[in-house]
Amino acid sequence: MERRVKVKEQGASISWLDRKLVAAYGDRVRPRRPPDPLDELVLTVLSQNTNDRNRDRAYQSLRGRLPTWEDVAAAPREEVVGLIRVGGLARQKSERIQAMLGVIREREGTLSLRRLCGLPADEAKAYLRSLKGVGEKTTAIVMLFACGMAAFPVDTHILRVGKRLGIIPTRATADQAHAHLLPRVPAELMYRFHINLIEHGRRVCHPRKPACTGCCLSIKCPSASKAE
Ligand code: SF4
Predict the structure, then answer these.
(1) How far is the C-alpha of 163 from the C-alpha of 121, rounded, in Å?
(2) Mutate which of 197, 216, 218 for ligand 1 pocket (most atoms within 8 A of beta carbon)
(3) How close is the Cα of 191 to the center of ligand 1, in Å?
(4) pTM for the model
């Protein structure tokens, strides 16, 4: 099993890549007021299988009509489905959101996940993973963005660009990539490296035709010549 995900260490170090990406896209600093963990969790559930624009439209529609999580938990299922329809998979997402709100209220005695950010990282992770429909990526997003914990969410851009750069094993799944990167990316770089790597995937290292000529990482990218 280990052999399947083993990567041939080559190419650039994480710190070199981080420096180049910062030069290209700038530093990224966690906001002083990070998002609330429950808000971030629901937003991330809404992001599944859709783009950022429709995720945001679904979230705004939901919060606009049902401003508190108590309102969302108490609303008829069909109303929630209608409010988030623009984000796709509305029935499945409504069911998950209302179910997780029920579990959180039962555990916390209130509809808040603020306690999560004070837990040790492994406990916070176990808490989130125990919620139905919450996988590795959603867990890592809440931990990194809302709680500032060491976590490295792997989305489609990070998986593709990371494999091309040789920092993710070529056959790794997103979950395996997360486990692979977590001990390799210094905790203090996780936030900005995550954001800048996605930015690079969107702007330069495109899925079909990566723009290797002029790419700031090309001199150390093992895929530079093959990918163009
Ligand atoms: S050199 Fe090409 S394949 Fe490598 S990171 Fe840059 S755009 Fe992607």
Answers:
(1) 27
(2) 218
(3) 21
(4) 0.89
The answer to whether the CB of 121 is under 6 A from ligand 1 is: no
List, in sequence order, the alpha helices (H) in 148-189.
Answer: 156-165, 174-181
Name the residue among 104, 226, 87 with its Cα closest to residue 163: 226
Is the CB of 197 inside a 6 Å radius of any atom of ligand 1? no
| Overall average pLDDT of the 55-62 stretch | 97
pLDDT by residue (tens digit) across 119-150?
999 999 999 999 998 999 999 999 999 999 99
- Among 137, 163, 209, 226, which one carries the catalytic annotation? 137
Residues 6+ apart with CB under 8 A from 168: 7, 154, 158, 159, 162, 177, 180, 181
pLDDT for 226 beyond 70: no
